[in-house]
Amino acid sequence: MALEDARDQIDHGFTREAFRGRSYENVFAGAPSFLRRRYSKDLAGVDIAVTGLPFDQAVTNRPGTRLGPRAIREASLLQPCDAPYGWGFDVLSEFAIADHGDMAFDYAMPSEVPGRIEAHVAGILEAGAACIALGGDHSVTLGALRAHAARHGPLSVIQFDAHTDTWADDDFDRVDHGTFLYKAVREGLVIPERSVQIGIRTDNPDTLGFAIIDARAVHADGPVAVAQRVREIVGGHPCYLTFDIDVLDPAFAPGTGTPVWGGLSSHQAAVMLRGLAGIDLKGGDVVEVSPPFDPAGITAVAGAHVATDLLCLWGWTRR
After folding, report:
1. Which of 34, 189, 215, 239 has a beta carbon 3.0–4.6 Å from 149's, enabling a disulfide?
2. Predicted pLDDT of residue 1
3. Residue 135 phi/psi, 5° resolution?
4. pLDDT of amino acid 2
5. Taking the domains of the chain in order of start, what are their residue ranges?
6. Which fold has domain 3-316?
7. Which of the residue ranges 35-49, 161-175, 236-250 would you say has the lowest mean pLDDT?
8. How far is residue 256's CA from residue 252's CA, in Å, rounded to a whole number?
């Protein structure tokens, strides 16, 4: 590329004219928007909006996931020159994708955050775009589920996680990353018998009716068979996919608040996500990336790949 041309290519996060297309920029410079998509609060003509939900005040252990969206965006800069591998189409070129920036909120008023998340995500959906969110701790998913269920009706949930997050909590003023799914069921946002939790390896006797494919089952049966079983459980029902990065073993994702050994490998997660192509994905998120506990950025790289595959899953059935 000639120097004159290169000068016209800098900072695609601000300067690119179209929401579609790959990006060829130095990965170490420029505005770190997700996959070098254009930052935009105006979602007219946008198919998918990626947004950050940088909230981590509902954790039970190590904080730091408020820095997750920024780290995931930076890690994503390794990818935008190429079509995502193994999907057979280029979601970056076929769909208009924007980086909608991070949701603003008052960090000193954590009880208000779930409502702000619901309104923020609802605004994206009302603009006609799908929403892929970057967390943040796992409590952020409750507000996103409320917004999606209000638009699409009760949803199937596909949850990749080390923890079920269905511990009983009938105080709906509490904000807790370990109880968000219990509350979602109690509110009728989720259809448990059409939902599945993958990679679980902590004990919680009350499953609330969710199908559970624990980490040992993934290791024993293999990711291809597990993806097929998930497709059978969910069927053609509208679904939301939430990916807690601690579903991966700490060897693959050390930067998270509640790491548990015996988890999935990056390979297993990638095969399963690809194997879910064809589900009716309405939205999704990747959460619990905590950069302070991973100076090498391994966890954020995994999170960026997951978020990219969520874009591909959404695009697969809409090509």
Report:
1. 189
2. 41
3. -90, 170
4. 43
5. 3-316
6. Arginase; Chain A (3.40.800)
7. 161-175
8. 11
- What is the reported pTM? 0.95
- Residues recorded for the chain: 319
Q: Which residues contact 181 (CB under 8 A, 6 or more apart)?
A: 141, 157, 159, 164, 165, 166, 190, 208
Could you read off the pLDDT of 2-29 as tens digits, one per residue?
Answer: 444 555 557 889 888 889 989 888 888 8
- In percent, the amount of the chain with pLDDT more than 70 equals 97
Count of CA atoms in the C-beta half-sphere (13 A) of 124: 33
- Tell me how far the alpha carbon of residue 177 is from its chain's centroid: 15
